[in-house]
Amino acid sequence: MFVRLTARHFAIATVSLLALATTIGAGSTVAQDGASPRAVPEGFVVPGPAPTNAPPADAAAPEGSAAETDGDSAAGNGAPADPMSFARGGEKGTTDWPCVQRRVESITPAQIWAGPDLALADTVERTTEMRALIDRVVARRLPLDEAEALVRAHVADLPEAEREAAATALFVDMLARLNNERSEVMGGIERYGAKQKALAAKLRAQSADFAEVQRSPASSNNDIENARQALLWDTRIFNERRESLTYVCEVPILIEQRAFGLARAIAGAL
Q1: What is the value of pTM for the model shown?
Q2: Distance CA 194, CA 204 (A)
Q3: Pick from 28, 152, 194, 250: most CB atoms within 10 A?
């Protein structure tokens, strides 16, 4: 009898957790404009590509048009950049997007670029040095201030006659790389959210089964304890994944901040 009462109390205690599971499974579209994300702990594995996002050394650079969008003309005219503009006006959330932050498909040049017209990038031949620099500065393992210093030094060393075009090409290719990485990370986050949604549904079903086992006169103490342990185990997994989600959801913001910082450093060096 003592085991039955304890298990019954446990079932009641899980109601609030299951309500939380339903909320996470459904996702959220509330924005947190201006929020400063926490650094992802060292060694934490996030969805998507490896943090370096570095292709083979002989890989071709992205075409200049890869990062272009309808907002390019505003960027080319020297429109002021807003570091948090990509946190507003997000796309409509999907059922598998688990983050508090809005889901925004990509970072557009108009949001972060205040330099020359992006069409200048089409006239520039991509060099091995430029590709190597991009490989280095897009890697999140490199502190942003060091990455900014590297691009400023690179732009300053360019011949004056070629500086604006070459710097613009550097920005276009860098943004294309960061957008590709960010898209892969977001795809991984959605897969992560889908698994959480499925686990939340499983927990609801397990809770119902546990209540049924408790009510059944045919259930032994052993049956009740086995059902309780199964529910406890999956609840623990759900909670651990929910804690990890806090860090996972901040990775796209970290990429956005890197894109803005590098764009500002390139334009500022002209």
Answers
A1: 0.60
A2: 16
A3: 250
